[in-house]
Write a structure and sequence with these properties.
mainly alpha, 3 helices, flat
Amino acid sequence: PRVSSSKPNPDQPLGVATSDASPEEEKERLVAEVRRLVARLPAGFGAVQQEFEKDDDSNHHMDFISAAANLRARCYGIAEVERLQAKLIAGRIIPAIAT
């Protein structure tokens, strides 16, 4: 199912937070925030590299690919695709990369 979203109104402010901090100060603030969040992770938490497999629905790889592709499509105003069509496209890309 697709979720409809309204177009942004250029006359209405977006409410993006701004700061008078220098780029270096902002970088330091962001690094400190990331470190704070990492410290809250459970012991032994980490990412594990996986082999991409488009045909195994239990690993949710195609769910992620489809969602990310549709978010990008929506940002650039191009047609979104259904999950099956994204799977067919991925099936053509992977062999092309391998050759």
